[in-house]
Amino acid sequence: MQRPRFLIVGAARSGTTAVHALLRSHPDVGTNSGELDPAALSRGIDPFLRGHASYFDEQNGAPALFDLLATLTAPERTDARWLGLKTVMGNPDLAIDVANLVREFLPGIHVVFVERNDVIAQCASLERARASGRWHEWEGMTRVEPAPITIGAGAFRSYATDNAAIVAQLRTLADTHPFHRVDYEEHVAPRRYGDLLAFLDLPPLEREPELPLRTGSDRGALVENEAELHAVLASIEAPSNGESWDKALRRFVLVDASRPSAFSIGRAMMLARWGRDELASEILLSALGRADAELRPVVCEAALAVLLELGEHGADLRSVAPLAAGILDRVRDPDLLARWRGIVGATTSG
Are residues 109 and 224 in the same domain? Predict the structure, then answer.
C-alpha cells in the first residue's frame, strides 16, 4: 500500500528547518534527519543507473527513491503513515528543476511551502549564518546576540530578485498538487502549526517538540541600512504565475536535449496531456531527429501515441502530421494505426 508523501520546500532561512523538525517529531511521520540536496532530488534515479534511466524507469523509480531517502536515517519510522523530505532552493533554476520533477514524477505528493514575508530579515539571517558558520540554535546552546550588519544594495537586489523567482516557481505547484503555505511570521515564529497538521490529517502532538530557536531579535537591530534595502525591494517586480509556468516548461526543452530520445518521447506525452501542444511537438521532433533515435517499432508506437494525444485534443494536424512521416511504416499496433487514420480522415473530410 502506497503511503502519502509530503515535500517541504522553500528558500534558505525561510523557516523550513523548524517545519521539518516539527514533522520529524511526529510519531506518524517518517522523514530523514537532514536536508536533501535539491540538485540530487531533481535528477531522480538517473545518477544511479548506467547510462540513462528511461522515462518509465523514472516514473516508477522517483517515488521509490523518495520513500527510501525519507526513511534512510529513521529506520524506526519505516512503518510511519506519512513519508516526507525537506529541500531548500538556492537559485531559481534549482527551484524550476525540483518543481518540474514533482510535477512530472511525484503526482499527488503534498507540498508544504514555507515562505518568509520579511525578505530583508531572511537575507540578514543568511548573511549572519554564512559569516558565523552557525546555522541554527537549539535549546542548551549558548546564545549569541547578533551584531548589526550592513548589506550592500547590489548584493541585496540580486538576492531578492532570485528569491522572488524561487518563490514564484514553487507557488506554481499549487496548480497541480495538494499545497499548503506556511507563513514564517504567522506560523513559524509563534510556533502555530495547527493548520499544517490539519493539512496532513495528523493529530496534535502530545508534547512540545524540540525546535530551533530564533537566532535574531528585531530586524532593526540587525540591518543598519534597512531603509535603503526597502527601496531596493520596492523596485523588484515578482514574476507572474504565467511567466513562471512558461519558464519552467521551456526548461524542459533546454535540459531535454541531454536525454535519450526514448526518454524525450515519454516527456512529450506528458506535455501533450497537459495541453502544451507546441512544446510537446518541439520535444518530439527533436527526439526523432537525434543521432540516438533508434526507430524500433516500440519507439515509433510511443511517438505515434504522442501524435494521437495531440490530434485527439484538438492540435492543428498541419503541424503534427509531418512528424508521422518515417514512423508509420514501423508501427505494428493496428489500433494505433486505425486511430491515426481516423484522425487524419476526419480532418480531411472536415
Answer: yes
Instruction: Give the pLDDT of the chain (350 residues) as one tens digit per residue.
Output: 678 999 999 999 899 999 998 998 898 998 888 888 888 888 777 777 766 667 778 888 889 889 888 888 766 666 788 999 999 998 999 999 999 999 989 999 999 999 999 999 899 888 887 776 666 665 655 666 667 888 999 999 999 999 999 999 999 999 999 999 999 999 998 889 999 999 999 999 887 776 665 544 444 457 889 999 999 999 999 999 999 998 998 888 777 767 778 888 888 888 888 888 888 888 888 887 775 566 677 788 888 888 888 877 766 666 666 767 678 878 888 888 888 887 776 554 44
Residues 207 and 293 placed together within one structural domain of the fold:
no
Say which CATH number the domain at 174 has.
3.40.50
Q: Which residue is listed with cell 518568509?
A: 116
Task: State the helix-helix crossing angle for 92-105 and 241-256, rounded to 10 degrees.
Answer: 80
Do 42 and 11 lie in a common domain? yes
pTM of the model: 0.84
Cβ atoms of 3 and 82 within 8 Å: the answer is: yes
Burial of 8 (0-12, 13-18, 19+ CB in 10 A): buried
